[in-house]
Amino acid sequence: MSRICDPAGHKYIPVEVKELDIYTGIYEILSAIRPDWPQANIKFKVFTDGITNKLVACQLDSANNSENNTNIVLVRIYGNKTDLLIDRDAEVRNITVLNKAGLAPKIYGVFKNGLSYEYYPGVTLNTDTVTDAKISRLVAQQMARMHKIQLGDEIPKEPMVWDKIEQFLSLIPEKFTDACKHASRYPSKDFQINWIRIYLAEYLDNPSPSQTQIEDIYKDVQRLSLASNFKWGIWSLVQFELSDIDFDFGRYAEMRLNRYFEEKNAIYKELL
Description:
The structure is a single chain. By secondary structure, the chain is of the alpha+beta class. Helix content is about 45%, strand content about 10%. It folds into two domains: about 10-120, Phosphorylase Kinase, domain 1; about 130-270, Aminoglycoside phosphotransferase (APH), C-terminal lobe (Aminoglycoside 3'-phosphotransferase, Chain: A, domain 2, Alpha-Beta Complex), CATH 3.90.1200. The chain has a six-stranded mixed sheet.
């Protein structure tokens, strides 16, 4: 069935980008959202940081590229069978809500197995930069601003982590087609307490949140870190079987699940 718009009201492009021939599909997408771009003047860059999707930057080669980010369009191609793991309609809806709040890029169009959106200059955070004092402060403040967004009645408010864990467990195959441990760089309690203090100051519009408030959030974070490790460990096992992306999902699953089992008893003893 043909569509003009996706569920969130964005332009729908009836194109499927093929795994082994991505540029043919991308040219079709660009002809729909940037019809004035000559194909001969378009340059591509494939980003390699993602482990779920493929991300391609499409840039119009012109004299003022460095000053004009509108000459760059990002095309995200969903990974193989990731629709089994991710509600893509909800993803587009959430990006749209965040964009209106100034916290996410604008979506230009949605196609059969991906979406195209605005380019934001920046770099991907890593385990070093995410714990930098200046950067971690910005992350905490932005997360608090995101959590203060008032959602409409049509958006579910219930936590999704348990439903997602059950969904991921149902997708793990009984037998895989292919049959280290990392030094922990997990943030210390002092780092977490300071991060939570910055987050609450922004979220509560109060520069001096109480120690009780900070400790309560810290305890919640410890409990939910177990759920996070378990969830992403299961997700990695599913990706290990389904994904075509060059990433060691099996090793990542081992790392996250080991962390879950190693920390479970210690965390609950600390919190009791």
